[in-house]
Amino acid sequence: MDKIDWHLWQSFAAAYHAGSLSGAAHALGTTQPTVCRQIHQLEIMIGQSLFSRSRSGLVPTDHARALMPMAAS
C-alpha cells in the first residue's frame, strides 16, 4: 500500500473523521465529487469497501477502522 497517492489517504481520513463526503470536502477545501472519486479509487485499489452509506452519513467499515492508523501516519 506504499504506492497509494497521499491525496487518497487524505480524503479517506477526512471522510472518516467528518462522517460525510461534504464534511470531508469542506475540511480539505475541495469538492464533494472529488472526495467521493478519491475514496472510490482507494476502495478499488485495496479491494474493500471503506464506508457504508446511510441517511445519517458515512459509517466506517471494520476495514476502514483497521486502515485508519495508516492514513494518520
Description:
This protein is mostly helical and 73 residues long. Helix content is 64%, strand content 11%. It has four helices and two strands, in the order H-H-H-E-E-H. It has helices at residues 6-18, 21-28, 32-46, 62-72; strands at residues 51-54, 57-60. It has a two-stranded antiparallel sheet with strand order 1-2. The radius of gyration is 11 Å and the shape is globular. It starts with 5 loop residues before the first helix and ends with a helix. The model has no long low-confidence stretch (mean pLDDT 93).
Keywords:
2 strands; 4 helices; two-stranded antiparallel sheet
Structural class call reads: mainly alpha
| Tally of helical segments | 4
Average pLDDT rating: 93
Q: Radius of gyration, rounded?
A: 11 Å
Distance between the termini: 13 Å
- In percent, how much strand structure appears in the residues? 5-15%
* Low-pLDDT stretches: none
Anisotropy-based shape = globular
Order of helices and strands: HHHEEH
Q: Please provide the count of β strands.
A: 2
Q: Name the quaternary structure.
A: single chain
Helix content: 55-70%
Task: Enumerate the strands of the largest sheet in spatial order, edge to edge or round the barrel.
Answer: 1-2
Q: Biggest sheet, in brief?
A: 2 strands, antiparallel
Quick description:
The chain has 73 residues and is mainly alpha-helical. 64% of the residues lie in helices and 11% in strands. The protein contains four helices and two strands; from the N terminus they run H-H-H-E-E-H.
